[in-house]
Design goal:
It contains 3 helices and 3 strands; from the N terminus they run βαββαα. The protein is of the alpha+beta class. The longest helix has 13 residues.
Length: about 80
């Protein structure tokens, strides 16, 4: 059974899911933990990774440096410009 360590905290659940998908594409297992009662609720979400993959996950994050707009696109598929009238 893996030991999970905190990698980072993201401001909302959909963005955390998007980041977890990015990590999964890198072969890194991630778990999410949030007090949000519904998926769209704006509540901090913690991302945990297997302790043996922590260094690799930190490196993957440092190489990506995803902006809030990129996380929004990954979580919703909507470009930030599309939501502007």
């Amino acid at each position: 059974m893996p030991a999970w360590q905190l990698l980072t905290t993201i401001s909302d659940v959909p963005s955390a899911h998007a980041l977890a998908e990015v990590l999964a594409a890198e072969g890194i297992d991630a778990r999410l933990d949030s007090a949000a009662s519904v998926l769209g609720q704006a509540a901090p979400c913690r991302i945990y990774v297997d302790a043996t993959q922590l260094r690799r996950a930190r490196w993957a994050l440092s190489q990506r440096s995803l902006s809030d707009a990129e996380l929004t696109f990954l979580s919703t598929g909507e470009s930030p410009a599309e939501g502007i009238p």
